[in-house]
Amino acid sequence: MESPRINIKVIISLFCSYMLLSHYTTALRPALAIKECEFPAIFNFGDSNSDTGGLAASIYPSPPPYGETYFHIPAGRISDGRLIIDFLAKSLGHPFLSAYLDSLGANFSHGANFATGSSTIRLPNRILPAPGGYSPFTLTIQYSQFLQLKNRSQLIRHRGGIFASLMPKEEYFSKALYTFDIGQNDLGEGFFANLTIHQVNGSVPDIISSFSANIKKIYDVGGRSFWIHNTGPIGCLPYILANFPSQKDEAGCAKSHNEVAQHFNHKLKEATVQLRKDLPLAAITYVDVYSVKYSLYKEPKKYGFELPLVGCCGSGGKYNFNGRTLDCGRTVTVNGRQIFAGSCKRPYVKVNWDGIHYTDAAAKIVFDKISTGAFSDPPLPFKQACHRSLD
Ligand SMILES: *[C@@H]1O[C@H](CO)[C@@H](O)[C@H](O)[C@H]1NC(C)=O
Ligand SMILES: *[C@@H]1O[C@H](CO)[C@@H](O)[C@H](O)[C@H]1NC(C)=O
Ligand SMILES: *[C@@H]1O[C@H](CO)[C@@H](O)[C@H](O)[C@H]1NC(C)=O
Ligand SMILES: *[C@@H]1O[C@H](CO)[C@@H](O)[C@H](O)[C@H]1NC(C)=O
C-alpha cells in the first residue's frame, strides 16, 4: 500500500515542477511573441474543399472508394480522407466539424460546418440533382443556416437535456474562428456553361462583392476572427484539363483558367483590405492556398508525388477523367465500354483524388504549409489568427 502512494506524490511533485518550468519558459519568451488565440469553436463556410458531410447528408452521399485512406468508409468528404479543415480543427484540439445539415449524430459543441460540395457564392443557374447542377446551399444560404444555429443552439442549451451538451456555448460565437473556402465553383460554373475566359473573368467582381457582404453579416452578429482561403489553381484539375482545350503552363496546367483564378484571388485580397477598414474589430486573415497547391503541381517530387495532373480514382484517359461530372466509385460507359471507376494503387503519391478534389496526402501538406503563417496576410500562424496584425 505504501509504494503506490509515494509514486503518486512523486508524480504530483514532478507535475508541479513541470508546470512551474513551463510557466517560467513562457515568461522568458520575447515580448514580441504574440499570444495564441482561444478559438473554442470553428464555423466553416464553403464548398467540397471543406465539406465534412453536408452534401452527403442532404443530397448525394459519395460511394466507396471515397474515404478509403483515412476513414475506411465514405465519411461525408469528397476525398479519400481528410480535408484541410479537418487538420485545422484537430490542430486546435477539437473534434472534426459536424456538418450543419447532418441530423445523425452531429455534435456542434466546438463549431459547425455549413460547407457543401458544389456550393457557390452567387446563386447558381442550375441546382442539384439536375445534371450539371450546383448545391442549393450558396454562401448566403449558409449564412442563414448559421443564424439558425446561433439562435436555436442557445434555446436548446437553456432547455437542458440530452441535446444541450451538443451545442456551442453562447460566448463561443464571438471567440470562434470563421473559416471560408469558396469561389471555385463560381468560376467552374462559368467555364462549364461555355462562357469565354473573358466572360468568367468579368464575373469576378460581382462574385467577390457577394462574398464580402456575407463576411459583413457575420461580423454584424458578432463574428470577429476570419480565416479566408483564396481559390486554388482550377486550371490544374483534371476536370478542366480533360474538358477544355487549352494552352498549358510550365506545370502542364491550363494557363488561362489559372489566370482567372489568380484574378479572383487578386480581387479577394483587395476585398480583405477593404473589409479590415470597414470592420474595425475584425481580424481578417487572407490565406494563399493557391500558391501552396500550385507548388504540388510544379514540384511534385519534392513532396513525394507522381503525375500530379492525373487523378487517382477515375475511368481512364490522359487525366483519368471522362465526361463532365465525377465518376469515381461509379460504373460509366467510355467509348462504348462499361468501366468501373475505381481507386489507384497508391493514393498517397497522388495530389488529385477524383479529378476535382485533393487527396488526404495533399491536404496534409497544404495544412502544414498554411498553418505556419508563411502564406497568410497578415503573416501570423493559424493559432494567432485572432490578432489584427503583428503589433
Ligand atoms: C461532443 O463533443 C465534445 C467535444 O469533443 C465531447 O466532449 C462530448 O462528449 C460530445 N458529446 C457526445 C454526446 O458525444
Ligand atoms: C435570432 O434572435 C434574434 C434575437 O432574439 C432575433 O432578432 C432574430 O430574428 C433571430 N434570428 C433568427 C434567424 O431566428
Ligand atoms: C458546352 O460545350 C460542350 C462542347 O461543345 C457541349 O457538349 C455542352 O453541352 C455545352 N454546354 C452548355 C451548357 O451549353
Ligand atoms: C481579368 O480581368 C483583369 C481586370 O480587368 C485583367 O487585368 C486580367 O488580365 C483578366 N484576365 C484574364 C485571364 O482575362
What can you tell me about this protein's structure?
It is a single chain. Helix 3 packs across helix 12 (360-370), helix 8 (204-220) packs parallel to helix 10 and helix 11 packs across helix 12. It is built from 12 helices and 8 strands. It has helices spanning 2-28, 54-58, 84-91, 139-159, 172-175, 184-192, 197-202, 204-220, 238-241, 255-278, 289-298, 360-370, and strands spanning 42-46, 111-113, 177-181, 225-229, 283-287, 331-334, 337-340, 376-377. The strands form 2 sheets. It has a 6-stranded mixed sheet. The chain has a two-stranded antiparallel ribbon with strand order 6-7. The chain has one domain (36-303, 359-384): Rossmann fold (3-Layer(aba) Sandwich), CATH 3.40.50. The longest helix has 27 residues, at 2-28. Residues 1-6, 8-12 and 14-31 have low confidence and may be disordered. It has 391 residues and is an alpha/beta fold. The structure holds 2-acetamido-2-deoxy-beta-D-glucopyranose (4 copies). The site of one 2-acetamido-2-deoxy-beta-D-glucopyranose has 3 residues, from helix 4.
Concise account of the structure shown:
The chain is of the alpha/beta class and 391 residues long. Helices cover 37% and strands 8% of the residues.
